[in-house]
Amino acid sequence: MVPYAVAVPAGFVLIWQLIKRWYPWIPNDIAFLSKMIKALRTMAYYRKKDIAVCDRLAEVAKSTPEHPAILYEEEIFSYGQMHKLTNQYAHAFRSLGVQSGHKVGLIMMNEPHYIAIWLGCNRIGAVCSFLNFNLKSKSLLHCIDLSEIKILVAGCDPSILAIVELLFTFTKRTTAKFEALAPLVGRSCFCHSVCYYLFLTDKASSEDIPRSWRGDVKHRDPICYIFTSGTTGLPKAVNVDNSKCFAGAAILGFAEPKPYDVVYTSLPLYHSSGAIIGIHDNMMMMIYCLLPGCTVALRKKFSASNFWPDCRKYNVTIVQYIGEILRYVCKQPVTPEDRNHSVRTIVGNGLRPDVWKQFLSRFGAHIHVLEFYAATEGNVGFINLPNKFGCIGTYSPLIRAIGNSPIIKFDVETEELIRDSNGRPIKCPPNEPGLLVGKITNSTRISSYKGKEALTEKKVLRNLFKQGDAFFNTGDLLMYDDEYRLYFCDRVGDTFRWGENVSTNEVSDTIADAGGIKECNVYGVKVPGHDGRAGMVTVVLEAEELDGASLYQHMVDSLPSYARPLFVRVQDELEVTGTFKRRKVNLQNEGFDLTKVGDDKLYFMCSEMKAYVPLNDEMQKKIEDGDLRL
């Protein structure tokens, strides 16, 4: 007889082996769900105790005050220092009249004070509006107006001061706007001193802030606005609360950071790149570093040539990325030091398979790629925990059942759901791209847009599978294969991505103001060797010929570099659908290929000539071969 103590464990081992053979995805699912449950329990605890992001910083600062929180250039900011600096900003804002519920605009490059300013607002219940310093005057002023800010804090970097000067000049040309901003100018928010934000804390106390200063602000009230281009119009402000911060930051938890880990980040802190596949919010990643009390190596601005030197300098173990920055890193000259680093994990999204393969081959196959999918305002996410090449996670039957995030059939030409005879959506089988939607419940809610209730509602699909249900429309096409590996395919709707997410409607409105353009249709096109899609516009002209120099100057003056169309196509008339929507699919497929556009004229945005110039075969080949800088 086999002893009972031996037989039972052996039986479990046998059953487990059979389960893994029949359902090979089960071990990955268990690992994923265990980490997710741990994160959810942590978030539930914070919500129950009404712990804010700033409170977590205070906890770590009191337990390990000397532990490095941020490594920045040649400086080391400890948790104790960051906590005191946060308190100083909170006291300074109170002295300027900022109260609970007020809004503070923040436009700065990456630096430790950015974190302290935000959490200083957090400590007194104020909402911090993260402003994108790449935006032009009109868009930036829109974000300021939408935020309803009481004061605007600008960084001391010369490029930031130049932006603020231009913004101030722009407001003078529009009296109403200038009148609205006059109180801000009176408070010296449009600072001319390179020490302005430091001056805020010059005489401020570092004493702890009483909880009462937050007023009745709760865990799920907004603590910051993150702007996203979305699919239509000017930038929109997503209401982000403490719960959303902790939830977004939990992505880093899958890398299992310890206090001795150093996380390297060079993406702008305002960033919510609603990217090819959703959010990659830099600030949320930084917040998760507070949970285990690890260290952040922060760079003011991304530099491909300094990427690995920084990693070696700071002994980095975890790197935050978006696909584009790793492509730039891979284009750097090969050196004997390529594998001389301590990086064990990279966390991010938008990593193309070719760059993925090249990165691991060159810098170390041991590096774990935690590619993920999520959205700033959304309620659905995936992560490549099993480290499978090219995918964003798994989509097993168990994950589908628990996650309530079906992939449904979608007609990209009409941009409509494909429904069955009963009017219900059809779930996609393996290897067929479809629209990802996430079920909205009390525990899987979505974030709203500030002042845009109608717009928030547009992101919701109601009565899909049964009467009364509601699903978040991600606007993304995903696909899973026969082994349940999940892949991102494309973005639906009026956006393209060239470094950042761009609203085609905003670009169209800008082009319409250029003069000489009767109609235009903006879209993104693929460029060999580049991530995302470059901007392209098809126009109908009022004149016989395109004024390439004038249009070029208008684009440079009106749009950030990533939003400027690189290609222009001229047609006699635009093709529209039966419901008068402008067709883009054929235009996207034809792109800037001279062999496919017939008699239409194509132009390329040439920075050397400062004009849109006619595209010829030689230029097209150079672009496709990567010999012409874009």
From TrEMBL:
Cellular component terms (Gene Ontology): endoplasmic reticulum membrane; peroxisomal membrane; plasma membrane
GO molecular function: ATP binding; long-chain fatty acid transmembrane transporter activity; long-chain fatty acid-CoA ligase activity
Keyword Lipid metabolism in annotation: yes
Keywords tagged on the record: ATP-binding, Cell membrane, Fatty acid metabolism, Ligase, Lipid metabolism, Lipid transport, Membrane, Nucleotide-binding, Peroxisome, Transmembrane, Transmembrane helix, Transport
Subcellular location: Cell membrane; Peroxisome membrane
InterPro entries per the UniProt record, alphabetical: AMP-bd_C (IPR025110), AMP-bd_C_sf (IPR045851), AMP-binding_CS (IPR020845), AMP-dep_synth/lig_dom (IPR000873), ANL_N_sf (IPR042099)
Limits of the AMP-binding enzyme C-terminal domain: 511-581
Annotated membrane topology: Multi-pass membrane protein
Residues annotated as domain AMP-dependent synthetase/ligase: 58-393
Superkingdom in the source lineage: Eukaryota
Entry EC no(s): 6.2.1.3
One GO term of the biological process aspect: long-chain fatty acid import into cell
Record carries keyword Nucleotide-binding: yes
Purpose of the protein: Acyl-CoA synthetase required for both the import of long chain fatty acids (LCFAs) (C14-C18) and the activation very long chain fatty acids (VLCFAs) (C20-C26) by esterification of the fatty acids into metabolically active CoA-thioesters for subsequent degradation or incorporation into phospholipids. The transport and fatty acyl-CoA synthetase activities are genetically separable and are thus independent activities. Esterifies VLCFAs in the peroxisome matrix. The VLCFAs are actively transported into peroxisomes by a PXA1-PXA2 heterodimeric transporter in the peroxisomal membrane.
Family: Belongs to the ATP-dependent AMP-binding enzyme family.
Name used for this protein in its record: Very long-chain fatty acid transport protein
Native organism taxonomy: Eukaryota, Metazoa, Chordata, Tunicata, Ascidiacea
